[in-house]
TrEMBL record:
The keyword Transmembrane helix applies. Residues 356-601 form the ABC transporter domain. This is ABC transporter domain-containing protein. Pfam families: ABC_tran. Keywords: ATP-binding, Membrane, Nucleotide-binding, Transmembrane, Transmembrane helix. InterPro entries: AAA+_ATPase, ABC1_TM_sf, ABC_transporter-like_ATP-bd, P-loop_NTPase, Type_1_exporter. SUPFAM superfamilies: ABC transporter transmembrane region (SSF90123), P-loop containing nucleoside triphosphate hydrolases (SSF52540). It is found in: Cell membrane. It is a multi-pass membrane protein. The chain crosses the membrane at residues 20-46, 58-79, 258-280.
Amino acid sequence: MRVRVRLLLLRRLADAGLPVVAALATTLLVQALLPAATAVATAAVVSAMRREGEDPGALSHLATPLALLGAALLVNVALKALLRPLATLTKIRIDGAHRLRVARLAMGAGTIDTLEQPRTQDLLRQVTREPSVWLEKSISDGVLGQLRTVVQYLGLAATAAVLASFAWWLVLVLGVPAVAVRLLAIRRWRRHFRIWSAGLPDHRSAGYWTEVSTAPAEGKEVRVFGFADWLVGRQQRHVRTHLGPVWADDRRAGLGQWLPTVLMFVPLAAVYVIVARGVVNGAATVATEVAILTAAWSVYATLISLDDVVNVAGAAPVVEAYEELAERLGAVSRPAPAVLGPPVAASTGATAPPVLRFEKVVFRYPGADRPVLDGLDLEIRPGEWLAVVGLNGAGKSTLVKLLAGLYRPVAGRVTADGVDIHDPVAGGPAAWRRRLTVVFQDFVRYQLAAVDNVTFGAPGPVDAVALEKAVTRSGLAPVLERLPRGADTPLSRTRSGGVDLSGGQWQHVILARACYAVHTGARVLVLDEPTAHLDVRTESEVFDRLSGTRNGATTVLISHRLSTVRGADRIVLLADGVIAESGTHEELTAAGGRYARLFKIQADRFVQGYDDRLEGSTLDGESR
Ligand SMILES: Nc1ncnc2c1ncn2[C@@H]1O[C@H](COP(=O)(O)OP(=O)(O)OP(=O)(O)O)[C@@H](O)[C@H]1O
């Protein structure tokens, strides 16, 4: 085991607080010294008994050693009672601090590209796992194991000193094989946990399929498509791929168990025989024999108890994974803001919407061979209502994520009032994001009360006026009226008194969140397919109200329904990684380009009663 990992584990003791650690360490130390004290006290009792035999009636010979032995036993019992709550408190504090550290690390990363990578997800799984099988160890298991190991070695030194006082060779004969057994165990468990960790991608996949098999939403499809057997087979395959090598290692280790057994018991038996013969020959007293036997056994009991070896070896991959994670995420992270809330103009001092520019932006997802955006230039004027259209996969959502600073361009830059949004001097993307609000296409349905879903994490008290405007203008008011506890109803059936909303109703909630942000200071409103779940009539009403709620903010709207974008100040068509067309609806339709062809297809289809989305069409104006 690398010394550095052991030191890192010990450093985490600070998370439990000095008084608790001091109490725990003292308790462990006294407990570790007890075997040596017990050996000496036992020898003293036996010796006193012999003198008692020679001088009957002189009970005083026996009183002191017996009191010492009794005290040692009592202290042992008391320490055991004290140890459990102290250890539990230490573990709770260390694991709590660890979880907080990981959360800060994950949230502190300004961009999400590293977070999305499979390796990062595996590392996160490794560092956040709650031990569910005995093979898994938490960080606090390792910290406590390491502390106990250090203290135990101090106790061993005391016991070894007692042994050496009778015969120095006893320390060598007993100590060397016992240390060898321990080193073998450390190697075996280190290898074991390395094999376990190597299978984590399969562990993750098995976990995914387990979740799919139990989640209600997925449960619908599992039943309708009838792939339950396939799903179980798939989950089992991942479990076997992960655990097969672990079980093979267990078998191998079990077969090799003869070596530690021989190393443990042969020297101990030899010492017992030699000391017993010494007593028979008169070379040693019974008291000496008892002391040696007691001390020898305690050396063995300490060195061959493998709990802490397993705990430290099991926690080592967690420490190593945390270090790798910190390196990956730390390079792009800054401390997470204390409160992640909607933008507040006052906090940035900004009141006017900024001039936004994409300057020759090239962006490629990690591992992809083709760029999504390829030298894209775009200026968005303050207060402008800009619509972005394009076919599936053209890169519209990617453009939104770049605007929100969730990714860094591979080349070029995105600026607000001429300043790169990733410029750390200006506060980086975290500061920039407090000036904008985004409705994502794949928005998240938080299991919170409706009102909390709208004012989500806002710093300070809820702004009632802004909330009312947001609820009215987003069309959420009629939805709230029908909820059993109105705005306080939890939006999840798994919460007590909670309800599930339909896709369209959820979209009203998310729109209300965006409106609330605009009324509390956001100057840029980005809407990625904000009405995809709404029926055409509701959509049109929502858009009418939204245009009145923009409050002077710049609005970037992505939509497949061209009927919703025709009122925009400007429409840009994204194709082949660049802005292929730009202008008002009238200009673009008059130009007779791709937009005009798309609009005509949708208009014709709408007249014929089809949905008017882009997916079924190509930019050349042909139906697929
Ligand atoms: N996180 C990601 N990692 C890797 N590739 C991605 C990721 N997100 C999107 N892509 C790829 O980038 C391309 C553009 O995707 P994007 O979601 O930006 O398109 P879009 O224009 O918004 O599409 P749609 O109209 O279907 O919503 C697609 O080829 C997609 O597969």
